[in-house]
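Table 4 source record.
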Amino acid sequence: MANLLDAYIPEIWVNESVAILVENMVVANLIHRNFSSDVARFGDIVHTRKPGEFTAKRKVNADSVTIQDATAADIQVPLDQHIHTSFMIKDGEETKSFKQLRDEYLFPAVLSIARSVDQVILGEMTSLYVNGEGIAGGLSTTNIIKYIVETRKRLNINKAPEQDRSLILTPDTEAIALQTGTFHEADKVGDNGTALREASLGRKFQFNTFMCQNASNFADIPANASQPLVDLSAGYPIGTTTFHVDTAGSALAVGQWLSVGGALHRVTALGTLATQDIDVTVSPGLRVAVADDDPVTIGDEGAVNLVAGYAAGTVGEIAIDAIVGSIPVGSLVSFSTPGTPNVAKSGVYSVVETTDSGGNTIGITLHKPLGVALADDDVVQFAPPAQLNPAFHRNAITMVSRPLAPAPAGLALSAVANFGGVGIRITMTYDGNKQGTLVTADLLCGIQTLDTNLGGLLIG
């Protein structure tokens, strides 16, 4: 009878759920986490802190010590990620053992939540593109070590602490890395092969290195057919924020994503010269030196497709049109109001779900709620093809988790548990119409960038 009763005890299910969740999250286990047992609701604001820096002072015996204020920046994190998975245990299945029900229902349900949490965090890491190193579509076995070292250099320059650094590789980037001796030869790895056997890539160049299937890998994203060329015989050095392109640059627009020299940039301003050539101002400045006639790859564009538009805070699908081809999950996206010039709207997002029709994407779901309202026909701007491999110190991004309130007594069976800084809830309700027990696993969290200086992207 114990197994029979276990199927209806949410406390047993929730304790098992939180253990499965924490064990199967990859990225969430590598970042700063903030947890409190205080019950919260969707939309609540949690205040977390980013510690300030101290400066060491010198003194002689006669001097008093210099007292510095201990400061910390207040960071507001909205609890705007209510992630859930529901399933139904039909009448007749309750005779199965708890282990059978766990393996058949609970494990895949909670695994989907773990993947969703990692997707959201990786989406937030798109903010680290301002510290991008590498070359879009150009990583190879001959240069991947060089660009990992350049990424490490970027974090060192930005004074990111050397401990608790992680590097997340896309499946494609991992495949390139594993073809180099640094990543697969036990004598070079320095761990006698232990890390490889345990499906970890080990610690490389100060980074604890992992592969994550949810990491942004959008090498097949459609690109704008227009490809202007850099137009200056002397080329442009690293750090240049405004450069000249030829007349094909007429396809460029403010807010657009482009790749030049392999790095990702956003267009912040355009200047038209008498020759109809274009001066392009980008953020961040050029990550690599570019030469005359180097190509500039423009990301694809679509348009918002809803007469009523979308309110700020929208979490559901956004209908789009004018896209030819399929937009992959993980793609970088932003929005602009059309005009001459376009007016870029705030916010950089990552696509976590798409809807296609006839081979063309007609809807996208973002990794976080919209920060601004969108109008019908607002421009939807996607980054050019690239793979994004986040490199970060754990304090670059925070995940704030709070428990949801158990369901009211008498309406459903419900329990909440937390482990490792993550809270999850299990709710069970009998559905007489469908003749089964509806089980919902859900959690409430918020994801927020704390400091872009503590992270970057290895672009491939």
